Amino acid sequence: MAELLSAERISDNRAFEREWTALRECVSPWSDKERLRQYFPTVDWPRLLMLADKHGLVGQLAACLNDCDAAMPPEIQQALLERQREQNFLTLRLTGELFRLLELFNRNEISALVIKGPVLAVEAYADPAMRSYGDLDLLVRQRDIRRATGLLIGSGYQATVSLDAIRAGKIPGQYLFCKPDSKLLVELHNNLTLRYFPRPVPIEDFIARRIRVRVDGHEVPAPSLEDHLVLICVHGAKHFWKRLGSIADVAGLMARQPGIGWERAGLSANAVQAEHLLHTGLRLAMDVLHAELPEPIAARVREDAVAAKLAARVLHWLPAPGYAHLGLFERAAFRLRMRGNFLAAPAYLLRLSFSPTEEDWQADGKMMSSNPVLDALRRPFRLARKYSRAGKD
Q1: 3-class SS at 215?
Q2: In 239-388, where does DSSP find H-type helix?
Q3: Of 80, 267, 273, 344, whose CB has the highest number of CB atoms within 10 Å?
Q4: pTM for this model (two decimals)
Q5: What is the mean pLDDT of residues 5-15?
Q6: What is the pLDDT of residue 3?
């Protein structure tokens, strides 16, 4: 059994360099099986499994090891089987609930797009159970939020954002719902909650360009491949690309969806001024997972100096998810770089720093503030307290 790694050691890539390299090869759609087999005799299997778990890649690791017929220790094989079984059961419950909610919304004339979750698992991995996820994410219009909240509450969900808060015009980070009996989680998003986009998401355009993705025999509405790619790249940047799973999602789409229109993806990113964020996701997929792009697009990505700097910063903390602490100033610097433009970057950071979420207008956990100015002023102080604490990440 492997020696347990301290936070200090796991933050040092040298402590598990072989396992990190093997994991990257395992989850890359462009991996070389012969080269991959050379890693297995020397890897520390418990550490490899730990890394895969931290990066949200247990399903992809298991599929790779089975495909390569790797001679892994029995206890590792059993652990993988158990975690796959757990993910399969959760996936079945989530997809079943997804079909029910889509039908409920459809009956009530609420348009919804499925983002990430089972749709991305099918698009990037051709298997709803391959990608690890624990909730359902739906993109809906802001005008439908109140009715959708009422329908979910009527279906047994508890809302973290009350109808009173919605009527008062409060905008959370997401509209989160949970079912205490089954522990199902649902998040509703729209152009107002997706605040990490440099410009508001053109949700009507997303809906107009929607496609149908087949999930477990059902056709579900989803963003176009190009819109979805931009969305997951912005989402990855929002979370500082801390997990290899986010990069694997981008690489999976690139490898398994040859129909991606790269010019259309560029136009979608340009509409929300997220070209640098799209290029960062593509750059990381190329540098970390050997992703291949058409040469004109690859050249454009390489020439993006902002994306190059963002990707370089990500590589400092990427190998150690959950352990590499990003302090307040490093987080702020990354946010500034996300915009790239010297004029737009400060405005972007200020908007994020003073746009209150439910954590700000429900500061004591119960009472809802009625003063939006105080909510906005409270936010930067809360963030400073939250991210100045060592080990918070």
Answers
A1: strand
A2: 244-256, 262-271, 275-289, 295-302, 305-317, 328-339, 344-354, 358-361, 372-388
A3: 80
A4: 0.92
A5: 50
A6: 40
**Rounded Cα gap, residues 363 and 117, in angstroms:** 30
Which of 86-90, 157-161, 382-386 is the least confident region?
382-386
Whether residue 359 is predicted with pLDDT greater than 50 in this model: the reply is: yes
Average pLDDT over residues 154-178: 93
Give me the residues paired with residue 189 across strands: 139
Tell me: pLDDT of 177 over 80.
yes
Q: Give the number of other Cβ atoms within 10 Å of residue 343's Cβ.
A: 8
Report d(CA 310, CA 287) in Å as an integer.
Answer: 12
326: nearest Cα among 255, 383, 381:
383
Measured CA to CA in angstroms, residue 383 lies from 329, 330, 331, 352, 389 at distances of 11, 13, 11, 11, 10
Query: Average pLDDT for residues 270-290, to the nearest whole number?
Result: 97
* Mean pLDDT in residue range 167-177: 92
Domain ranges of the chain: 74-223, 326-393
Average pLDDT over residues 57-82: 89
SS3 state of residue 291: coil
* Unique residue bearing structure tokens 């100033």: 329
Which strand (E) or helix (H) includes residue 181? none
**Cβ contact 351:379 at 8 Å:** no
CA 27 – CA 244 distance, rounded (Å):
9
Q: Which two tokens stand for residue 288?
A: 């970390």
CATH (residue range 74-223):
3.30.460.40
- Residue type for 337, please? R
Helix (H) or strand (E) run with residue 113 in it: strand 112-115
> Residue 147 has which token pair?
């009715």
CA distance 105 to 304: 41
Gap between the Cα atoms of 220 and 251, Å rounded: 23
| Residue 48, token pair as written in the block | 């490899």
**Report for 100-109, 340-349, 362-371: range of highest mean pLDDT:** 100-109
